[in-house]
Write a structure and sequence with these properties.
Helix content is about 35%, strand content about 0%. The chain has about 120 residues and is mainly α. Helix 2 runs antiparallel to helix 3.
Length: about 120
């Protein structure tokens, strides 16, 4: 690289650049995940990985088409809005708070106690 800069060479033909030197190379082994190597993984993390894998597949299909990427972007925004406005059912794992100190006072939203609020971990 130093020699190229000293000789003021701005471009290099693609045939001189080895494939392994490129940043955009997709290698087969980079997407392999062996769950047996991680027996301590929680069920929640396994579900997260399953959703992430599906999303990555959608992104790979959409790459190269701005229309498809815009479609994915719109659907992600719709999903985010739906999740923000989600009304939990009885089957959801919602843990009620143990104390009443998190009630609204004077119409303002209180600062929640992290010990009382439900966490994502199981």
């Amino acid at each position: 690289m130093l020699v190229l800069a000293q000789k003021n060479i701005q471009t290099v033909n693609d045939r001189y650049v080895l494939r392994r030197w490129r940043k955009n190379v997709n290698r087969r082994h980079s997407n392999i995940f062996f769950a047996g190597g991680y027996p301590h993984m929680t069920e929640e993390y396994k579900k997260f990985q399953e959703v992430e894998k599906k999303f990555q597949q959608c992104i790979e299909i959409a790459m190269g088409s701005s229309e498809k990427l815009e479609f994915i972007n719109e659907r992600c925004n719709e999903m985010k809005d739906a999740l923000v406005n989600w009304v939990p059912t009885t089957s959801d794992n919602v843990q009620p708070s143990q104390t009443t100190e998190n009630t609204q006072v004077g119409g303002r939203t209180p600062i929640l106690n992290p010990v009382v609020t439900a966490t994502r971990t199981a």
